[in-house]
Automatic annotation (TrEMBL):
It is a multi-pass membrane protein. It comes from Dictyobacter vulcani. It is found in: Cell membrane. GO terms for molecular function: branched-chain amino acid transmembrane transporter activity. It holds the Pfam family BPD_transp_2. Residues 650-682 are annotated as: Disordered. GO terms for cellular component: plasma membrane. It comes from the Bacteria. This is Branched-chain amino acid ABC transporter permease. The keyword Transmembrane helix applies.
Length: 682
């Protein structure tokens, strides 16, 4: 097979320097901001000072904490070096340098600066999303004014032979080496300045010298690692699949392979629609957007997972005091994520508009509260000993989830013939009824007083080490991480299963799905049951973590919040739902809630509003502000922050696909010669 000529084969030295400059600056700037604007340098020096000065009590000498900090720093800086090598090898070189720098600045530098200013992870994420949205809006308007047309996705697709693979690997090594050299020089100059101003301990000069030597060496090998990652996504000359030469190929002793030919990766992509080709070509190296390719995404996910898992130990170092309150709020965010994942099954996968989802959350919450509390004695006359009944939390996770799933079936049964607005009204009524019912059941739920003294979970001790569920939020943090992981796994398996495909078919066209043999009754009922199942898990966790359950904690507007998480994140998109839950929680429950606190500070720029408007408080206009944010997002990002591929194609229909559609004689008016010739009307 002929190898297509690539502009990267004989890359001139000038182009090589431009490529290196583009991505070295793009990666070095965020790393320097993390190091010198936020807490990178402080963490590194803190680890070494703890080792070099073991007698200083003000330093953290906990071995476990020092190991975690060292591991996190190695992953951050190692990933940055490997990413620089990957990006240089994966870039087609066609995107403008300034455009790349602006994208990286608003995607990474702005969030890091906000983290340093606000010292709150979720608030900085919410503000960064707003800033990123404004930037995208301005960038789109500038492109339209300049009549900018993005390059075709297949234009940068080339077959890479062994010679060019070696050239790409050397280019990645070169990028990693230069990254290490430049960063070593920057850190050396900074540390010399710190030492001259008595801000650096003399013993740390040993570490400065060792780091200056190690960074270029590490850069060489990590850049090579990034290059190897990029080579995994290249198209080799013999890459392709075998297909039958004709649809009527006979299946003899060798099967269809006896009459087969190999189709190259280029031919495969060119045979797809324009939108599908754009999605597939984005991951093939070289490409125009290496920052969004699969290899770079894997590096981001590795860093994100490391940060999430190690967060309870890193929080006091990264954000200072208030660790307990922040971890508690992140535990609350966790059950919002589970609720959004469950609602995504009903609304995103099956297309059933459910405005009463909070009802299932209420059922799951009261299920554990009535069993794992002194209320159990009121119901049965049996004394519930906390040290024994706390162990029932684990089976109740499944029992309560199954109970809410049953209620999901009971809700879905009367609504099988309803669609759209009618379904929304019925489910909204169900969401209003259930909390009121629990309020009126004084004998079982203690009525409007709620249930107090709900037991926390119980876990076995390992030697002298026991989890403190009563006074520490950290066990709940890791518990919700495990539950989220299980729910994501279940969502992915359901989406890719036969039932998941049936849900999507019903969402797209219910009549066509029924005509294809899909059982609408069973499929819809299973969607309601699956969504309610996850709400039950979230309810049990919420009751155990909070310790009390009050009817005032639930109202119908909660269902609107859950739906907003799904829609803003991206209907049917599991990563989108996760991001949507974080963004909505950060904006609505953290940022807007604290505006009055900011306005009361005379040094804050919001302080002029209470002075200008008599009796003004942000709490009075909180829902107004949240509504405006929702409207703006839906106008400029109707598919959601991270949409599913199908929904992205629906809302951004490519004009090339319309042009490729061949006109049919059936498109002609009846009675015309063309229509009669095709239909053979006599």
């Amino acid at each position: 097979m002929a190898v297509s000529e690539s502009p990267r084969k004989l890359l001139p030295n000038t182009e090589t320097r431009k490529l290196l400059l583009k991505w070295l600056v793009a990666v070095l700037v965020p790393v320097c901001v993390f190091t010198y604007v936020w807490v990178g340098e402080q963490m590194v020096n803190g680890v070494w000072l703890s080792l070099l000065y073991p007698d200083v009590t003000s330093l953290d000498h906990d071995p476990w904490s020092l190991i975690i900090q060292s591991l996190f720093l190695l992953l951050v800086y190692g990933s940055a070096i490997a990413l620089s090598g990957y990006l240089v090898a994966a870039d087609s070189g066609r995107r403008n340098m300034l455009e790349v720098w602006f994208d990286v600045a608003f995607a990474t530098v702005v969030p890091l600066v906000l983290l340093a200013v606000t010292s709150n992870l979720l608030i900085s994420i919410g503000l960064a999303v707003v800033v990123w949205g404004i930037y995208l809006f301005v960038r789109t308007r500038i492109r339209r004014a300049r009549h900018y047309t993005p390059p075709a996705p297949l234009a940068s697709l080339h077959v890479i032979d062994d010679k060019e693979r070696g050239a790409l690997l050397r280019l990645a090594q070169q990028a990693g080496l230069w990254f290490g050299i430049i960063f070593a020089v920057i850190t050396l100059v900074a540390d010399i300045i710190f030492f001259a101003t008595d801000q650096l301990a003399p013993l740390l000069l040993i570490w400065v010298a060792v780091r200056t030597v190690l960074l270029p060496v590490a850069g060489y090998f990590l850049g090579r690692l990034g290059g190897r990652m990029a080579l995994r996504y290249t198209v080799a000359p013999d890459a392709g699949i075998e297909v039958a030469q004709s649809e009527g190929a006979q299946r003899g002793r060798m099967g269809w392979r006896g009459n087969a030919r190999k189709v190259s990766r280029e031919e495969q992509l060119q045979s797809l629609s324009a939108s599908r080709a754009s999605e597939e070509a984005r991951d093939v190296v070289p490409n125009d957007k290496p920052l969004q390719s699969r290899g770079a995404t894997r590096i981001y996910l590795m860093l994100l997972m490391t940060f999430v898992v190690l967060y309870p130990i890193l929080d006091p170092i990264l954000f200072g005091s208030g660790t307990k309150g922040r971890i508690t709020s992140y535990g609350d965010l966790g059950f919002y994520v589970i609720l959004a994942l469950g609602l995504n099954i009903v609304v995103g996968f099956a297309g059933l508009l459910d405005l009463g989802y909070v009802a299932f959350f209420v059922i799951g919450t009261y299920a554990w509260s009535m069993v794992g509390s002194p209320q159990f004695y009121v119901l049965t006359g049996m004394i519930a000993r906390p040290e024994i009944f706390s162990w029932f939390f684990w089976p109740m996770l499944i029992i309560a989830a199954l109970l809410t799933a049953l209620w999901g079936v009971l809700l879905g049964a009367p609504t099988l013939r309803l669609r759209g607005d009618y379904l929304a009204i019925v489910t909204l009524g169900f969401g209003e009824i259930i909390p009121i019912v629990f309020t009126q059941m004084d004998k079982y739920t203690n009525g409007t007083d709620g249930i107090a003294g709900v037991y926390p979970p119980a876990t076995p001790c390992i030697g002298s080490f026991c989890l403190n569920w009563s006074n520490s939020p950290t066990p709940y943090y890791y518990l919700i991480l495990i539950l989220i992981g299980v729910c994501i796994f279940a969502n992915v398996r359901l989406r890719d299963s036969r039932m998941g495909r049936a849900w999507i078919a019903i969402r797209e066209d219910e009549i066509a799905a029924a005509s294809s043999g899909i059982n609408l009754v069973n499929t819809k009922l299973f969607a309601f049951a699956a969504g309610a199942f996850f709400a039950g898990i979230a309810g049990v966790y919420h009751a155990a973590k909070l310790g009390t359950v009050a009817p005032g904690d639930f109202n119908s507007t909660d269902s609107i919040i859950y739906l907003a998480m799904v829609v803003i994140g991206g209907l049917g998109s599991i990563p989108g739902v996760l991001v949507g839950a974080v963004v909505v929680y950060a904006i609505n429950l953290l940022i807007l809630n604290q505006l009055d606190t900011y306005a009361s500070d005379p040094s804050n720029f919001l302080h002029f509003l209470p002075q200008l408007i008599h009796n003004f408080t942000f709490s009075n206009v909180r829902n107004l502000l949240f509504g405006i944010i929702l409207i703006v997002i839906m106008i400029f990002r109707p598919e959601g922050l991270i949409p599913s591929a199908r929904r992205r194609r629906e809302l951004h229909h490519t004009t090339n696909e319309d042009e490729e559609a061949e006109p049919s004689a059936l498109d002609q008016p009846p009675g015309t010669p063309e229509f009669e010739a095709e239909m053979k009307v006599e």
